[in-house]
Amino acid sequence: MNRCRALLAALTILLAMVCPVVAGNAPPQSEPFSIDVASRLLQEVTRGFITDNSGRVLAAFDSARMRNYGSFRDNVQSLFAKYQSFRAAFRVRQSWPQGERGVVIVQFELEGTPLEEDSPPFRRSAQLRFEFERGRAGWRIVDVAPRGFFS
């Protein structure tokens, strides 16, 4: 009986190691930069705005590697405090690897409906440059310019 349990445990460990590779789901650390990588993270940013979830927006960014992340986080949270709902969309214009990073230029659209009825809604549209870097948890955004777009 103990031999069967040991064999079952060994088989379980082996399957856990092999199944992600067989299913085509390589660990995020080994995935090369691509438009798909960038699009997935930018979709998380737009979904965060659309679902009124600042945590989801910020989860796409690497807080440890992004310069002045605290200020960026505060600006994003300030937007969520002023507006009750958002519409957001993006379109990738260019993408390229740059050393250990990936870079994309996107046309980003963001509209907000204010919490206060007498405040006007806002609409922003601009070309933004996002930089991506791979870390332990996979690819994350490490820079965006101009940052004022999200303030």
The major beta sheet can be summarized as: 4 strands, antiparallel
> What is the terminal separation in angstroms?
63 Å
Average of pLDDT: 86
- The low-confidence runs, each spanning 5 or more residues with pLDDT under 50, are 4-28
* Number of domain modules: 2
Helix content: 25-40%
What CATH calls the topology of the largest domain is: Nuclear Transport Factor 2, Chain: A
Tell me the strand percentage band: 25-35%
Give me the count of strands: 4
CATH hierarchy: architecture of the largest domain: Roll
**Biggest sheet, spatial arrangement of strands:** 1-2-3-4
Q: In CATH, what is the class of the largest domain?
A: Alpha Beta
List the secondary-structure elements in sequence, H or E: HHHHEEEE
- Our Rg estimate from Cα atoms comes to 20 Å
Instruction: Quickly give the structural class.
Output: alpha+beta
Summarize the structure.
This protein is α+β, with helices and mostly antiparallel strands and 151 residues long. The chain has helices spanning 2-22, 35-50, 54-59, 69-82; strands at 83-98, 101-114, 122-135, 138-145. The protein folds into two domains: 1-29; 31-150, Nuclear Transport Factor 2, Chain: A (Roll).
Walk me through the structure.
With 151 residues, the protein is of the alpha+beta class. It has two domains: 1-29; 31-150, Nuclear Transport Factor 2, Chain: A, CATH 3.10.450. It has four helices and four strands. The protein has a four-stranded antiparallel beta sheet with strand order 1-2-3-4. Strand 1 and strand 2 form a beta hairpin. It is globular. The termini are far apart.
